[in-house]
Automatic annotation (TrEMBL):
Coiled coil: none annotated. Belongs to the UPF0260 family. It holds the Pfam family CxxCxxCC. HAMAP family: UPF0260. This is UPF0260 protein GCM10009332_24850. InterPro entries: Puta_zinc/iron-chelating_dom, UCP006173. It comes from the Bacteria.
């Protein structure tokens, strides 16, 4: 049986934890929180380190040297990261939901995820190209399939 079914998030090895990431790139989107309502808004502006074609960090191992405020997603903080989209594999498993049918661990590649529109591929711009972040608010990151 697959490790994500037989183990809790806190029982995963670091390798299993990293494999669980679907690689969608949504966690790398800049987000805004309304000061008055605390409502979360996603933007289509990504961290400068995101490879927007392949949806992965170009300096993953040393990302904190480039982006000190980058948030590391861990078993210890996953339940407090309410800004992760419902489609996120970590969030799904935390909420006792199965991996989605398009997840790379089930399909063997990111192709099904991209085809289902569940990644940021082809939808984003680099934050360095953005002047008014409020003009880049989008709703598609909250989409969740199966």
């Amino acid at each position: 049986m697959s490790f994500w079914i037989t183990k809790s998030l806190s029982q995963l090895s670091s390798t299993e934890w990293e494999q669980l990431c679907d690689g969608c790139g949504k966690c790398c989107l800049n987000k805004l929180i309304d000061d008055e309502t605390d409502e979360l808004y996603y933007t289509n502006a990504t961290c400068k380190l995101l490879d927007r074609e392949n949806c992965h960090c170009i300096h993953y191992e040393s990302r904190f040297n480039f982006v000190p405020l980058c948030t590391e997603i861990t078993p210890d903080n996953i339940d407090s990261l309410t800004w992760l989209p419902d489609s996120c594999a970590y969030r799904r498993l935390l909420n006792k939901r199965p991996l989605p049918s398009w997840h790379p661990l089930l399909t063997g590649s990111k192709d099904a995820m991209h085809a289902a529109g569940m990644s940021v591929k082809g939808k984003v711009v680099c934050e360095t190209q953005v002047q008014e972040i409020e003009d880049h608010i989008v709703v598609w990151p909250i989409k969740d399939l199966d």
